[in-house]
Amino acid sequence: MRGKPLKLPKNKSLFFKRSLFAHCGKQAEVFFIKSFIIGFFMGMAIFFALFFYVYGYYNDSTSIFLVDPKYNTYLFDNGEQILSTKYKYVKLDEMPSELIYFLLWSEDREFYEHNGINIKALTRAALTNIKNFSIVQGGSTLTQQLAKTVYLTNERTIKRKIMDIMLAFFLERSYTKEEILEAYMNSVYLGNDISGFGAAAERYYGKELQNLSYEEMLVLIGIINGPEVYNPYKYPERAKNQGMIVLNSLPSNFIIEEKDSVKERIDKMVFYPQTYDERYLNLVYRIKVEEEDIGLKGGGYTIKTTFNKNLFDSVTVDSSTSAIVINNKTGEILSFWGGEYDVFYSQQQVGSAIKPFYYLLALENGYDTDTVLPDQPMKFGDWAPENFDKTYRGTVTLEEALVDSINIPSIYLASHIDISPQRSIETIKNFLSNVVGVQGKYPNDLTLSLGTVETSPYEFTKAYSLFPNYGIIPSTYIISEVYDKKGNLIYKRYPNVERKIDGISNDSYATMNTLMRKVVLEGTGQRANVLDLDLHGKTGTSDLSAWFVGYTGSEVLTTMVKGEDLLSSYTAVPWAKEIATSLLYYGQSEEVYVYLSLKSIQESISFFESPIDFVSTGGNVVGYLNSVKFDYPYKELEKKINAAQREIQYLYPDVVKEIEQWKKENLTDFFKEPFSFIQNGYDLESYLNSITIDKDKQAQLKEIYNQIKYIYPDQAKVIEKFIE
């Protein structure tokens, strides 16, 4: 059946439009819902991915209190700073309350209300950035600024902004507000490589933070917004103007004084000048090397060194000269001049400065000072060496050959150290490289006798200490004490013996000391002689360098001048005299102790067996203790020293004081000072075998094990044997 015809509206086009819009609207609504759901879940996925990425990044990062290694403070041995302060830790309760109020007002007024992110500030900053089509405001809270300082960079990007927002979120849940504020005030960058308000107060005003005035606090806070733009040294007026801006923003009840008087003082403000000797940078480079050697990580430490400021400042060498002074009893490096690389790493031929080492071997093999050596033209294979002055004397004594540094007799002597010239070369090389420990490049022929071995001033200085010490070479060091940022002593270095040369008699050392004193008094080193200074030494000249290595009873010094056609007597030796004069002036030097048949004293009058007789006959107790330090197990050595000390305590109280000092530096108990015990070189296993290890000792051993396992892994393995 046919139905009624469909009635269409008069306005057909309107009908179709409405139908089409209705249909499209439904599709658009479905599309919008789908897009919203997809966008929502994609956004959530991105958020969680970013959240866990930043969370992992945060967990792998350091504490907010861990300081960058570049912010260490270095001190000379007298406590004066080597370089200007970069970092000085100050506890929050020691900071002026006004400084804290000014800072929070200027940088983060809602610090104690927000959870690391200030939504209002971020929104305001976003609108400003959109308006300017660039990132001109950050809207960061102090927590975000701290996150940026500790974990991120200063780049102004959206990625960094998102990172510091999320890191701030994690920081607020890991630390208290007071901890965050304390970390911020000690880490905020204030220009000129200065981190934190404590260092800035000292650098810019020469004051402790607690003593700053209102105007000084305001200027420091103003610098935060642009440490380089408002650099007080480069742009003092800009820095002052920033202080004015902070001052003008403060409510009237924030400061007691009239603002006008504070403004006047800001106008008149003078910033403490930044001064330091650029030569000190070489000292710092070397300290950094030792920081790594002792396993020091992070920064904010105060590091006291062995460098003597007066000695360093009293000598200025030219660009071709390098020099170093070491305390030959303790191993302390007292000073060095020239580039750090030249002193410690460069390799230059040492010339005749090598001769004392194989002359020492010759004396031990039966030669003496009166032994006659030939001085005439000789040929060794294809090598025809000459004396420096091109003349020949026919024959000379061993003493004359060394004192006047004559080449031909010295080469002859070197070639007869062993049964053949080649065996002699191997014997000399072995003695220098393996026994004495001189690191360098060695030739395989007799040119070795004229010093074609290549090494550094540091290596040769350390090696020469065996002469005044009668065979003992101390371990050298620069860092004597380390304090953490809160002032706690966490590391202390004690003198330690690196090598004890066996097989050389004290008679041979004594003869060499006599000969090298004559080198300075009568021979090639005369220009180094200083009245009232017991200086011994030897010159050396090679094709590209000139040397003088000298020593007193307490120091070894080396000067090396690089260049062609040099004569050590006119180059290296005068520099040595200048350094030696400074040693005498500052009262550093002692005489080389004279060997009065120490061998017979040890055999017939032992300090341990007859302490009174030993001291009364002029025996050197400290020298004796050094010589027998490793001849006895630790506990036995301790008993013998204490027993001998009791016998002489009333007769020789001054000697008892020397023994007490020696014990303090050398006879340290492992459980009280494990690092010192190990550094002194005692046999840990025999020590632990000699004592009863109860439960308390077990607990102590475990604690010590955790302290030393990374620094001294070999000693930690020994402890493992004794831990149940």
Automatic annotation (TrEMBL):
One of its GO terms (molecular function) is penicillin binding. Keywords: Carboxypeptidase, Cell membrane, Cell shape, Cell wall biogenesis/degradation, Glycosyltransferase, Hydrolase, Membrane, Multifunctional enzyme, Peptidoglycan synthesis, Protease, Transferase, Transmembrane, Transmembrane helix. This is peptidoglycan glycosyltransferase. It comes from the Bacteria. It comes from Petrotoga mexicana DSM 14811. Residues 322-553 form the Penicillin-binding protein transpeptidase domain. The chain crosses the membrane at residues 36-58. It is found in: Cell membrane.
